[in-house]
Amino acid sequence: MTMGWNRILGCACLLLLVDAAGLARVAAEEEAPSPTVAEAVDAYMKPLVDAGLFSGSVLLARDGKVLVHRAFGQADIAKSVPNATTTRHKIMSTTKSITAVLIMRLVQTGKLRLDDLVSKHLAGWPAGWKKIQVKHLLDHTAGLPNLENVWAMTARQGKDRGLALWRQMARAWAGQHLATPVGTQHRYSNLNYELLGAIAEVVSGLDYARVVRAEVFKPAGMKESGFDDGSHPPGLALGYFRGMAGRPEPRGQDMSVIRAAGGIYSTTGDLYRFDRALTDDRLLTAASRERMMTAAPHTYGYALGWKVFPVQGHACARHSGGANGYVADLMRFHKDDACIVLLSNFAFAPSLLIADGLAACLLGREGDRPAYVKQGALDRYRGAYRGPESTAVVRRSGACLSMYEVREGQARILPTLLLALGEDRFRRQAWPSRMRFEMEKKAPTRLYMDGNQTIEFVPVATGKAWKKAVGRYQTKAGIDYRIAYTKKAFYLRQPDGRGGELELLPVTVGSALALHGEDFATRLVLKRDAKGAVRSFQLGLSDGRTIECTRK
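The structure corresponding to this sequence follows.
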């Protein structure tokens, strides 16, 4: 009897211990603190850095307090100079927000009005543009023809910038007409902001750089910001494009050719100081700030120098920028007193997606979380997938995937990077659509692409047919080419090595994409005889021309 009770008591004690342990575990789980913003950001950024998709600096702040300020990657890869939180980066089109604040400052001091006709300030203004007002330049509804490339090209050929360049262009553009009626359509253009910079020079009597320093940089305390002139000031990161095989390649360009639209360099700290100065009256009054953030119904959320639309369900005013080796994003959650600054010296960084993900970390929202997938696993997805209206061609680019969506009639096809969300799940860089590969025995059997609806793509077998194309070819002018197959990839080469090589990505048994670096691709079309033997090919060139090559 005693032994029986001992067993019962022992079991009861054991049950109590187990139950207590379980309760303690549950209590610990309930009381476990959620990740801090800093921990969430570190976890979010690590796979992006590991995959070689980000190099630069990020800053997240709320309620006037910096919560995260991190730097990643290299400012100069060849010299092994790491990025720091104080590293300068070219901010490209984020410059437009600074120019817009400058214009609003000049409006406040009475030197300018938003409804002033531009012809009041710029001599030689074309008669066909006479109805354009200052506000139409600010929200890109001026309706100007596509002349921004002419402006930049002319600037590169000489030393004139800003107002001096306008005086030169005014004579050539005297007879130009508008592309669309004033104030009716949003047509984003660097030229709008270059003209605003010229107006600022006229009404202030100062060069654009001097008036920005006096009216924006100084009151905001932006001591590390400046103006690109093609030189390399101390602390400026080198800008990189994505080269073949995903390797970063440095590129440089003088952005003073579009100075008021994209020619400023800055730091994450200075852009946060800019944000702080916009929370009080140091730069603009409350009424001016409200007007600047108010978008017309037909501008797709573009107000006066800011894109105003919700991010992660919170009101946000932002401006991004990207070109020539750099990308930037400044996000101001003005109703939450929160700010995110992202600057990168990798032009291929998916900055908009990253900034939106950082917003989820800052605001405590659920969002896509990047994942790092090993290159061997990524290789499984390479190939072409045929859909109802297009073919998706997937290749590995470094530690990432890139995709070309090919449709009939396209001459140039641009790639998009795929951001890994898991082993077989990805998100396209430029669109909020997700992709999923269905696998069987480690081989893809379907590709599902989500947009407004889920579209199914099926793999296309092209390898054996394309191996029949390997060989030598010649143009009518006697220039030799060779289609080669090396390390499970096809290439178009000139045997003498003068023309370099183009990687070929088969799309169908009769056509492929010819990669011109990582930036774009053109088409190569095979011509076969009745027995399927390849007799010649036609190659699209980057300028739209084609060349014909016959098999030797």
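The two ends are 102 Å apart (CA to CA).
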